[in-house]
């Protein structure tokens, strides 16, 4: 009985902690323990997309989070002055999460 309680406790703790690395952006597919997809953010009236900029941030169990996934950082990386559209690339793998902001424009 004691070992069953121990295994159940580990399962509950693992389930609770697994949500710590999920990205802040639930997106159209929602949150997931394992996730690797691309999600739309917004589109502008500018229909020219000749340049691409990417900025990423990573998260480890919500204990350590690093990076700058801002639209401004992605614009600077791609040398973009006029934004056409913004997408997100989201990856979650149990205890590790990564969100990249992808800006297209000119």
Task: Give a short overview.
With 106 residues, the chain is of the alpha+beta class. It has helices spanning 2-18, 71-78, and strands at 34-43, 51-60, 64-67, 83-93, 96-105.
Characterization of this structure:
- This protein has helices at 2-18, 71-78; strands at residues 34-43, 51-60, 64-67, 83-93, 96-105.
- With 106 residues, the protein is of the alpha+beta class.
- The chain has one domain.
Distance between the termini: 65 Å
Count of helix runs? 2
Strands of the widest sheet, in order across it, are: 1-4-5-2-3
What is the number of independent domains? 1
Q: Top keywords for this entry?
A:
5 strands; 24% helix; alpha+beta; 106 residues; 5-stranded antiparallel β-sheet; 2 helices; elongated
Secondary structure topology:
Layout: H1 2-18, E1 34-43, E2 51-60, E3 64-67, H2 71-78, E4 83-93, E5 96-105
Antiparallel strand pairs: 1-4, 2-3, 2-5, 4-5
